[in-house]
Design brief:
The chain has 236 residues and is an alpha+beta fold. It has two domains: 77 residues, Immunoglobulin-like, CATH 2.60.40; 117 residues, no CATH class. Helices cover 46% and strands 17% of the residues. It has a four-stranded antiparallel β-sheet, with no helix packed on it. A three-stranded mixed β-sheet has the order 4-1-7, with no helix packed on it. A hairpin with a 5-residue loop joins strand 2 and strand 3. Helix 2 runs antiparallel to helix 5. It starts with a helix and ends with a helix.
């Protein structure tokens, strides 16, 4: 009976010793794309339980140490996160083969608009004109006083003029924007996209000057204004 008890004690001690040896488990594995061979230059191995992270190898292999029941997450850009729980084998190791599928890609339509030439913009500058609405002025007021009074107080006529002015301003703004983009492409000015609206307000380009100025006059004026714009924004 004593001999049997001695065996039981030895068996318990052996199992406890084996468990103690697995306090640190060596895990290793490999990530593979299930559809096509792929290199993984941004494979990140994260131990969610400890918060530690290391990088894997470009061929998809990874390894590290963890404790039993730790959660390991494998993160690869454009792939879903792959997770597994660390379970030790008889050698205190954990082997993992992770097959992952690339996330579906949503293609966004991009419309590329070609830059207009200086001649095209020059034609548009010359064509800028405020659409005239019939207004009775001067000597015509005496010839048609009722019409003049109607136009002065008619909301409809006022709205027509307001709409015509807004269309004119929009056309002018569009032409100036195209001109600025051309100057940026030619490296005449170094205007950033977020600065466009602020510079357009700062520029305050006279409509008549925009229509009649020569190319060199426009370039000189806009470049000079841009230098001042940069100084003001730099706080000088």
């Amino acid at each position: 009976m004593l001999h049997f008890s001695h065996r039981v004690i030895l068996l318990v001690q052996f199992n406890a010793s084996l468990f103690a040896q697995c306090d640190r488990i060596y895990f290793k594995g490999r990530v593979e794309d299930s559809l096509r061979p792929q290199s993984f230059y941004n494979l990140l191995v994260v131990n969610r339980s400890s918060g530690k992270a290391t990088f894997g190898l470009p061929d998809g292999r990874f390894s590290g140490y963890a404790t039993s029941s730790d959660t390991i997450a494998l993160s690869v850009k454009q792939y879903p996160i792959y997770e597994f729980i660390v379970r030790a084998d008889s050698n205190c190791q954990c082997h993992v083969m992770a097959f992952i599928d690339r996330l579906p890609q949503e293609m966004v339509e991009v419309v590329v608009k070609p830059l207009k030439t200086l001649d095209q913009i020059k034609e548009e500058r010359a064509a800028l004109a405020l659409r005239e609405t019939r207004t009775v002025t001067g000597i015509n007021i005496f010839e048609s006083p009722i019409t003049a009074l109607y136009e002065a107080f008619s909301k409809k006529e006022q709205n027509k003029r307001w709409i015509a002015e807004q269309v004119y301003k929009d056309n002018q703004r569009r032409v100036v924007q195209e001109l600025l983009r051309l100057y940026i492409a030619y490296e005449i000015i170094d205007l950033k996209e977020p600065e466009f609206d602020a510079f357009l307000v700062f520029l305050n380009l006279d409509p008549d000057f925009l229509k009649t100025a020569s190319e060199i006059e426009l370039i000189t004026y806009i470049k000079d204004k841009f230098e001042h714009f940069k100084r003001f924004n730099a706080g000088e």
